[in-house]
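Same chain as my last thread, 228 residues:
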Amino acid sequence: MTWTTRLRKDAALYGLPPERTGRCGRPREKGDRLPSLATLAATAAFTQVTVTRYGKAATIRAAVVSCLWHSVFGTRPVTVVLIRDRSATGYDLALVTTDAAAFAAEVTERYAASWSVEVAIEDSKQIFGAGHARNRIARAVERVIPFQLACQAIAVTWYATVGRHPADAEDHRARARWYITKAGPWTADMAAKLRRVLIAARFQASRPGQPTPEEINVIRLAWEDLAA
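reply #2:
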């Protein structure tokens, strides 16, 4: 398992541990203290990188530094990616990952993809009620939250495969005219439509194509006469 996250502005970074000298004593776990991120950005070599973030392709400049974040990951080497997106000097965003094989573009896209995960967690709390799981019994909470996350996944899957309609966003804009920039359905729209479908399926007297109780009784009597 690897970690990819945003790096703190005041993170204490160190160089990789030096080679063993062959002398007696414990070898060094880390190298010398590295300067601040602003100083590293001023001396690092930035290259152009094409990334896909939030559904759009963009060209940014990135610099990669291999070092240690000793206070967090100990002796595990990390890769720091400094990103220039809008600024001409310095850096706009600093990322850190324990995946030594990842390129700068992969780290940037991975961090951008985490936004959808954060939104899904917020939806699970606000819409599906995962944030209301409170119980003195710890195992009850351990059951409730995974069940609610599973319900959220089922609702989104149902909408994506069966319930989606191209006019859903337009209908929502007609009901709530202040959402003039709404381009697609939200999780709340998916849950609301699924709720309406379940209510209609539960209380609808009969469904098209299903036999009525009278028709079933006629068929049963015909089978009995045929058997006799």
